[in-house]
Amino acid sequence: MKISLLVVILFFMLFAVSASSEDLSQKQYNFFKDQKTFIKNPFELRDPFRRLIDSSKNSKRKGFKTNGENNVFTNILPLEEVALEKIKIVGVLLGKDRRAMAQVEGSKETFVLKEGMKLGVDGAEIKAILPGGIVLVEKIVNVYDQEEYLETIIPMSDN
Questions:
Q1: CA-based nearest residue to 103, from 121, 76, 123, 130
Q2: What does the domain layout of the chain look like in residue ranges?
Q3: Spatial separation of the C-alpha atoms in residues 18 and 34, rounded to whole Å
Q4: If we measure between CA atoms, which residue out of 137, 138, 130 comes closest to residue 155?
Q5: What is the CATH number of domain 77-155?
Q6: Per-10-residue mean pLDDT, the chain, length 159
Q7: How far apart (Å, rounded) are the C-alpha atoms in residues 143 and 137?
Q8: 108-141 burial, b if ≥16 CB within 10 A, otherwise e?
């Protein structure tokens, strides 16, 4: 008795599912008939929920400096505008990607340095990050109009 009741219920369930799937496949909406879209690449469209930001207007505001990436406005000087004598190395991270932590004298802001970055007014490039500090190389022109390379080592600071 229980098995026959189960078979009957199963039969009605399969019949209901097949009937509803046939209705959905035959049903068409009138507003989709014979219409094509003119959008060629929909993934290249602008997100309508994001605000348009014109970075050329924002970076020209007086009294603010931007870091160029995230349009973050700050009054802290970037390391490209600080003299090398005022930069202190306060930490070094060794591993696959070497990093150094630096502070400018008189400031508590910490900067993360990577190999290849430019530092200082003269554009000295970080060539190596070592456990004891960093090695900078800058190109200068001597009195004979010849290019020379100067190596500067900034050691880790004690305090």
A1: 76
A2: 77-155
A3: 29
A4: 130
A5: 2.30.30.830
A6: 82 71 56 71 81 61 53 74 89 90 88 91 91 92 92 87
A7: 19
A8: eeebebeeebebbeeebbbeebeeebbbbebeee
